[in-house]
Design goal:
Blueprint lengths: L7 H16 L6 H17 L6 H13 L1 E2 L2 E2 L10 H14 L13 H19 L21 H11 L3 H13 L11 H8 L6 H17 L8
Antiparallel strand pairs: 1-2
C-alpha cells in the first residue's frame, strides 16, 4: 500500500477552497482576511494529528474492504505519503506566503521580508483600533480612555494622507457613542481609504474575464476622443 491516502488532498483542498471563496467576497476587510488565513493555517496544522472525517472514513473503508468508492485497490511499490508531514508542509507553506506590505516575490532578502511583515502587522494593529469591540470600557460602561487609539489613527491618516485633525475629532465622538451610532462624516474618508486596500486579485480577475468576454463575443472596439 503506497501513494497518497484517499481524501488526503481532498480534505486539504476543501479547507483551501473555503478560504479562497471567503477571500473573494467584495465585503471582506483586510483584518478579516488575515484572521481567516491564520485560522486555515491552524486547521491544516491540526490535521496532522486529527485529519478530519473524510480521511478517517476513507481509511476505515480501505481497511475493511480494500476499496474506495467501489474502486478495488491493490498494493503497489509507490512510496507511502506521510499524511502528518503533508499537512504540516502545507501549513508551513501557507504561513510563508502570509500577506505583508509587499508582494512575496519583490525581495528574497530576509531583513526586507521581516520589515515588510512588521509594517503589515502595524497596519493591522492600527486598523483594529477602529473596531468598537477593541475599546476598553470603564465600570460605568463608558470609554475608559478617550484618547485610546488616537496615535494609531494618526498613523493611518499620515499613511493615507487624510486630514488628521478632523479625523481624530470624529474618532473621539465615535468613541463617546461607543460606536453604536452612525460613523461621523469626517471619519468616513478613513474607512473608505482602508476599504481600497486589495485583499486578493479576484476583483481584477473578474474584470479581466469580463473585458475579455466583452471583446470576444461583442466584437467591440474602443474609440478615443482627443
Amino acid at each position: 500500500k503506497g501513494g497518497a491516502p484517499p481524501s488526503l488532498g481532498t480534505s486539504a483542498l476543501d479547507e483551501l477552497g473555503d478560504l479562497s471563496e471567503y477571500l473573494q467576497k467584495r465585503s471582506i476587510t483586510l483584518v478579516d482576511a488575515d484572521k481567516s488565513i491564520r485560522t486555515t493555517i491552524r486547521v491544516l496544522d491540526s490535521m496532522a494529528t486529527d485529519p478530519g472525517p473524510k480521511l478517517t472514513n476513507a481509511l476505515k473503508e480501505i481497511k475493511n474492504e480494500m476499496s474506495y468508492k467501489n474502486v478495488i485497490l491493490h498494493s503497489g511499490n509507490v512510496p507511502k505519503i506521510n499524511s502528518a508531514q503533508f499537512y504540516k508542509s502545507l501549513a508551513n507553506n501557507l504561513k510563508s506566503r502570509m500577506m505583508t506590505s509587499s508582494s512575496s516575490n519583490v525581495s528574497r532578502n530576509e531583513k526586507h521580508r521581516q520589515d515588510n511583515e512588521k509594517t503589515f502587522k502595524t497596519l493591522l494593529d492600527n486598523i483594529e483600533k477602529l473596531n468598537p469591540k477593541n475599546w476598553p470600557l470603564s465600570n460605568d460602561g463608558q470609554i475608559e480612555n478617550i484618547q485610546f487609539g488616537d496615535c494609531n489613527i494618526r498613523n493611518l491618516c499620515q499613511q493615507f494622507q487624510i486630514d488628521e485633525k478632523s479625523t481624530i475629532q470624529s474618532f473621539r465622538i465615535y468613541k463617546m457613542d461607543l460606536g453604536k451610532k452612525e460613523i461621523p462624516e469626517d471619519l468616513k474618508p478613513l474607512y473608505k481609504s482602508i476599504a481600497t486596500i486589495p485583499v486578493s486579485t479576484s476583483e481584477c480577475e473578474r474584470n479581466h474575464v469580463t473585458t475579455k468576454n466583452f471583446i470576444k463575443y461583442k466584437n467591440c472596439c474602443c474609440s478615443f476622443i482627443y
